Amino acid sequence: MPVIDTLGKRQSDVIRYEEPTALYSRDTATAGSAIALGQMLTIANGTATVTPAAGTPNAVAIYDAANGEKVTVLARHAIVNESGLVYPVGATAEQKNAMNAAIAEVGILVRV
Known about the structure:
The chain has two helices and eight strands, in the order αβββββββαβ. By secondary structure, it is of the alpha+beta class. It has one domain (11-111): Head decoration protein D (Virus Head Decoration Protein, Chain: A), CATH 2.40.300. β7 (78-81), α2 and β8 (108-111) form a beta-alpha-beta unit. The longest helix is centred in the C-terminal third of the chain and has 13 residues, at 93-105. It is globular. It starts with 10 loop residues before the first helix and ends with a strand. The mean pLDDT is 92.
């Protein structure tokens, strides 16, 4: 009988590398809406919101969170798998590339 993986998406699907020293790569913020693992986020004034297709993300969610809950994010010095990222619905290839470039500016590199 075949074994079926029913665990769903995992952090290892998103995170390829993060700085191991004192959780340097991570930050927390309050979720401004429902957030899923791997979503591109914009954090401002301590609130994390899902970045729209034309937006400029500065973090990647590494846990799911409901509106108002604390969410842990990668905010710097990390490498993520592109296949694990959640882009906004309808985002074009050009918008995805722009979002990848935006998070690269804060030190989060996207790899295929």
